[in-house]
């Protein structure tokens, strides 16, 4: 519905070890990345898959111990 561009798409990203991780693709952008590009949302349409996986792996490592 207006004013939203579309719904989110869901898919899986696979890391180098072959582990699948769920992610989603938003059709719209909140534009937070224009203020602090290094802190763009993980699901931002401007965030590339390699960066998404890097953040997922970093978060997993931080919670593992």
Question: Can you give a write-up of this model?
Answer:
The protein has 65 residues and is of the alpha+beta class. The chain has one helix spanning 49-64, and strands at residues 9-14, 20-25. A two-stranded antiparallel sheet has the order 1-2. A hairpin with a 5-residue loop joins strand 1 (9-14) and strand 2. The longest helix is centred in the C-terminal third of the chain and has 16 residues, at 49-64. The mean pLDDT is 84.
Query: Which residue ranges are poorly predicted, with pLDDT under 50 across at least 5 consecutive positions?
Result: none
Strand content: 15-25%
Radius of gyration: 13 Å
Structural class: alpha+beta
Number of strands: 2
Question: So what's the overall shape?
Answer: globular
Strand order of the largest sheet: 1-2
Order of helices and strands: EEH
Largest sheet descriptor: 2 strands, antiparallel
Helix percentage range: 10-25%
Number of helices: 1
Give the integer mean of the pLDDT values: 84
Task: Give the termini separation.
Answer: 43 Å
Layout: helices, strands, pairs:
Blueprint: E1 9-14, E2 20-25, H1 49-64
């Amino acid at each position: 519905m207006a004013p939203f561009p579309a719904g989110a798409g869901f898919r899986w990203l696979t890391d180098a070890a072959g582990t699948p991780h769920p992610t989603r693709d938003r059709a719209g952008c909140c534009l937070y990345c224009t203020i602090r590009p290094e802190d763009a949302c993980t699901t931002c349409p401007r965030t590339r898959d390699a960066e998404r996986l890097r953040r997922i792996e970093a978060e997993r490592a931080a919670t593992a111990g």
